[in-house]
Amino acid sequence: MKIISKVGLSLMTLCVTGVFAFDVAELNKRSDRGFTPITVKDWQAPDEKNIPNNLFGDTVRYGKALVSETYKYIGPEVADKKMRYAGNNFACASCHQEAGTKKWSGPFMSTYANFPQYRNRDETIGSIEERVNGCMERSMNGKSLPENGKEMRAIVTYMYWLGQGIPLGAKVSGAEFPQVDRKMIMSRAADPIAGEKVYKEHCASCHGVNGEGVKREGKANGYEFPALWGKDSYNTGAGMFRVIRAADWIVANMPLGASNHNRILTDAQAYDVAAYINNYDKPRTVKAGRENDFTDVKVKVPDSDIAPYMDDKTRHQHKFGPYKGIIIPAKN
Question: What's the pTM?
């Protein structure tokens, strides 16, 4: 299974026991921007032939290059040590496939139009630059880019260019994550043992038996197939470390060749292999300060493995499920 190289869960109110779970009504209240967004259904990536030959166009092209070959420009092996912002040899496109244009893989077409926005992880109104740096510090296991620097400006400009014609605050079909079967995750825990079988059958041929991936020869050349655990992978603060989040992405994008409308894995296989990849027996860099993520437990994501919680479930159950009593479907 290849990760080529991240909306809210429409769930959760309160538990019948009187113990509260993730409060979707509260999240929606905090996320409200005071208008009803329109939905764009048939977005197509703009034609790169129309990128102008001027400073703006050069910035767009550099932004795309940074997304596609992050390791080449700001990775841990670049010659200029001052440019080593990413801590692993991934590319942004490891998850945001096809340089952020593949639907259902965390694409960027509506990103620019939807910031600033409420961020429940930080309990703040976050900027697009802060969101990019969240990925830099977590999925890329590195450090923040200067918000006014050339690289950040190029990435944001590329997102702006991809979103041409998208109205302010619009929802774009395919920009959100897909979902594995919510009834399934309510009724059973993800099974790392079953996930190991899925991994061996569908994933190991690309990502390696030990999750080491296939690294290209030479310095700052990245991966053909990235590492899924170990020191050169994402850290424990990344969204992909969360089992539900990972399963939702995997089911629509893995193995290589899969899409949301051409799925290869079943929902159960995606759920189980997400648990296997992110199980605690896998070495992975620990993100410092995770106790400061989702500090308001009313809006803490259900698959966070960092307490405290507003329910009576264990850390293990929050990590692997089942999510009954943690996820309560919101009333329409």
Answer: 0.91
Q: Tell me the CB-side half-sphere exposure of residue 294, using CA atoms within 13 A.
A: 20
* CA 207 – CA 150 distance, rounded (Å): 33
Contact between 233 and 141 (Cβ < 8 Å) = yes
Q: How far is CA 11 from CA 24, 26, 302, 329, 331, in A?
A: 6, 11, 10, 4, 9
* Residue 112 amino acid letter: Y
The token duo for 162 is: 């991809």
Structure tokens belonging to residue 260: 């949301």
> Does some domain include residue 327?
no
| pLDDT tens per residue, range 77-116 | 999 999 999 999 999 999 999 999 999 999 999 999 999 9
CB atoms inside a 10 Å sphere around CB 271? 30
Query: Residues for the chain: how many in total?
Result: 332
- What local confidence, expressed as pLDDT, does residue 20 receive? 45
The answer to whether 265 touches 198, Cβ cutoff 8 Å, is yes
By C-alpha distance, which of 86, 327, 114 is closest to 220? 86
Residue 204 tokens read as 């190991």
Q: Which of 150, 172, 194 is the last residue of a domain?
A: 172
Q: Is residue 331 included in any domain, yes or no?
A: no
DSSP string, 260-329: TTB--S-HHHHHHHHHHHTSTTS-BPPPTTGGGTT-SGGG--TT--SS--SSS--HHHHHH---BTTB-P
End-of-domain residue from the set 172, 199, 227: 172
